[in-house]
Design brief:
- The complex is a heterodimer of chains A (451) and B (178).
- Chain A is mainly α and 451 residues long.
- Helix content of chain A is 72%, strand content 0%.
- The longest helix of chain A has 34 residues.
- Chain B folds into two domains: 93 residues, Alpha-Beta Plaits; 67 residues, no CATH class.
- In chain B, 43% of the residues lie in helices and 12% in strands.
- In chain B, helix 1 runs antiparallel to helix 4.
- The chains are: A mainly alpha (451), B alpha+beta (178).
- At the A-B interface, helix 1, helix 6, helix 7, helix 9 and helix 17 of A face strand 2, helix 2 and helix 3 of B.
Chain lengths: 451, 178
């Protein structure tokens, strides 16, 4: 990025908040329509019961729980990646972090709604809260589903805070440029930010502590999601490798989602000068590493299962490898490994378009992976007389599509009320670069003078 | 804005802001009477130095401790307070591993919440009415000023701030120059 004045940065990054194109409204209307249709399907499901879904004995966890795992995984795009880059002091992170953190907050909220959508009587979801019900019964603390409650809520609170804290100076920036009602709203959101040295120092300290705290929380969240499965004696679930396997998969899909979001923002909000090819290349390298790691985990998990040759495990193994789920399995391998690895490994192909194509493949592949972890195992449990099949209903398909539309809708709305790139962080990064350059110039001048 | 008396200069860059700070200090103004506001942290500059002693990490640790103890007590109580006597076959009623998970999550939650509270208090946030502030800070200017200066020093401070490179010199309260 050519060095820009602070005022140019303000103009560029605050422009999307005031300029709205007709294209934006059309896209918004389409996504909103899909969300409304999905909402009405959920309404129908509440009225008619879970019979409108494809859920039936023995497969009671299918599309909805796939979505739950997928969206919680995607949430690792933001806070975790942002926290790691912040702690490593990766300077290129500055335009990327907020785009990423927003994904976390929205995808975590969407993911957390799926266990409720999945309930036959969603209005009783509060039974999960740790309080004694009217019968004096407490929720069972030994259940991984209750661990989910604690882990997801901790991660959500942490992620929302991690997103909001660095927004305070930007809210103050908008407050100072706005008038009327807008000024009052942003003034309230800025919490009285003025930019004193003490406020800057305390904010940086708080962000540092939050970054340290949020990484183990993010790891624990997806570990616990994996234990929803691994704690059950179900073929191909009861595995010690599940927690790291799920965490790696979550980061993998998270980076892919971030690349897609950044490409969209770059194009539609005209942020080409801020979200540059170097950001896509660096994230592409990370995606490549995660793709290789994902393959390692899948290979390791399947090799161990195959070597053990336990007959029920093998029945799940073969139904995914060669049976009715094989087309999905090989699509997953193609999307998560065969497609992204060459694109991301060859420098010439690791362009913005290349990384986006690889990322779309990974997002599709990771959704299929979650489905393949859950459903085939449930169709072939330890009692062969209970074996069955699963076919999703339109209700499940439309609700699933609705969540993708909801994600896009929330992201678009957010980008219209908050600068999607942290303005002050970008300016600070530029100042650091300028200082660094001046130091080098001064040193070289001094050296030339000495000669 | 409240009627606090102050004189301040708006500087275009951190170099001149540093000069402004030194000019005020050389006029005998104590560091804690000098007001500084900037649109970004400007680490490494004298004017951006703040009291770096912060107890925030300790407060976060304390929050984690409180969260962890609360988490364990919650996990323990939910298991012993179950209404019917559970036949556990000799196994302990309180299961340590699951209690550990709940304890861990609430430890982290406690640390996160304590950090937020510490930030809000120590950075003096949640004060929506400012004594002294200039929106030009958001436009990239750095504010360096004196709070409650002596009346006879007014011209001296104004000159010093201008000489240091202030683009504008303004005042509040009885020094309101508008």
């Amino acid at each position: 990025m050519a060095t820009k004045t602070p005022e140019q940065i303000n103009e560029d990054l605050l422009r999307p908040l005031s300029v709205v194109s007709p294209r934006y409204f059309v896209a918004l209307a389409i996504f909103l329509a899909v969300v409304i249709v999905a909402g009405s399907m959920f309404g129908r499901q509440i009225y008619d019961g879970l019979g409108v879904t494809g859920l039936n004995r023995p497969v009671f966890w299918a599309f909805y729980i796939t979505n739950f795992v997928f969206w919680i995984g995607l949430s690792h795009a933001g806070t975790l990646i942002s926290a790691i880059l912040r702690l490593c002091n990766a300077t290129w992170r500055r335009p990327v972090t907020r785009c990423a953190e927003v994904i976390t907050v929205f995808s975590l909220s969407i993911g957390a709604s799926f266990p409720i959508i999945h309930l036959g009587r969603p209005w009783l979801a509060f039974w999960l809260f740790p309080y004694p019900s009217e019968r004096g019964i407490w929720p069972n603390i030994r259940s991984p589903l209750l661990w989910d409650f604690f882990a997801i809520n901790t991660y959500l609170i942490g992620s929302v805070t991690f997103l909001l804290l660095p927004m305070l100076p930007d809210f103050a920036l908008i407050r100072d440029r706005a008038s009327g009602f807008r000024k009052r709203v942003y003034g309230f959101l800025a919490l009285g930010w003025r930019g004193t040295p003490k406020q800057w120092h305390r904010l940086e300290t708080a962000m540092h502590i939050m970054a340290i705290a949020i990484i183990p929380v993010a790891v624990s969240v997806h570990s616990i999601v994996s234990w929803d499965f691994a704690m059950a004696p179900v073929p191909m679930w009861h595995s010690t490798i599940f927690a790291p396997y799920f965490v790696a998969g979550a980061i993998f899909s998270g980076i892919a989602a971030l690349i897609i979001a950044m490409a969209g923002l770059r194009k539609f909000l005209h942020l080409q000068e801020y979200l540059r090819p170097i950001h896509f290349q660096n994230l592409g390298k990370l995606l490549l590493v995660m793709s290789l790691l994902w393959f390692y985990f899948v290979f390791s998990e399947r090799l161990t299962g195959w070597y053990g040759n336990e007959k029920y495990e093998m029945s799940v193994f073969w139904v995914t490898q060669r049976g009715s789920f094989a087309p999905l399995f090989w699509t997953m391998v193609f999307c998560n490994f065969l497609l992204p690895v060459p694109i991301l490994a060859i420098k010439k192909l690791r362009t913005i378009t290349g990384t986006v194509i690889a990322s779309i493949g990974v997002v599709i592949g990771m959704w299929i992976e979650r489905f393949l972890i859950i459903v085939p195992s449930l169709t072939r449990k330890y009692l062969p007389f209970s074996w069955g099949t699963y076919r999703p209903s339109w209700t499940e398909i439309i609700i699933t599509a609705g969540t993708f539309a909801a994600m896009a809708l929330l992201y678009m709305l957010f980008a219209k009320v908050v600068p999607i790139i942290a303005v002050w962080e970008l300016k600070a990064g530029q100042s650091v670069e300028r200082e660094h350059l001046e130091t080098i110039l001064a040193a070289s001048e001094a050296e030339a003078g000495a000669d | 804005m409240a009627s606090v008396d102050s004189i301040y200069g708006l500087f275009p860059d951190p170099g001149s802001a540093d000069r402004g700070l030194k000019a005020l200090q050389s006029a005998g103004v104590r560091r804690d009477s000098i007001l500084v506001m900037s649109p970004e942290p400007f680490e490494g500059y004298e004017f951006a130095r703040s009291d770096r002693r912060s107890s925030m990490p300790w407060i976060a640790a304390l929050g984690g401790l409180v969260g962890g103890v609360s988490g364990y007590l919650l996990a323990w109580y939910t298991q012993v307070a179950y209404p019917s006597r559970i036949i556990s076959g000799g196994m302990p009623l309180v299961s340590k591993w699951p209690s550990g998970i709940v304890t861990y999550e609430l430890t982290m939650l406690g640390a996160i919440l304590a950090t937020i509270i510490a930030l809000l208090i120590s950075a003096k946030l949640l004060h929506w009415k400012f004594d002294i502030y200039d929106p030009e800070v958001s436009y990239g200017k750095i504010l360096i000023g004196v709070v409650d200066p002596a009346s006879e020093s007014r011209m001296d401070f104004e000159d010093r701030l201008r000489d240091a490179g202030a683009e504008k010199v303004k005042g509040t309260g009885r020094f309101n120059l508008a």
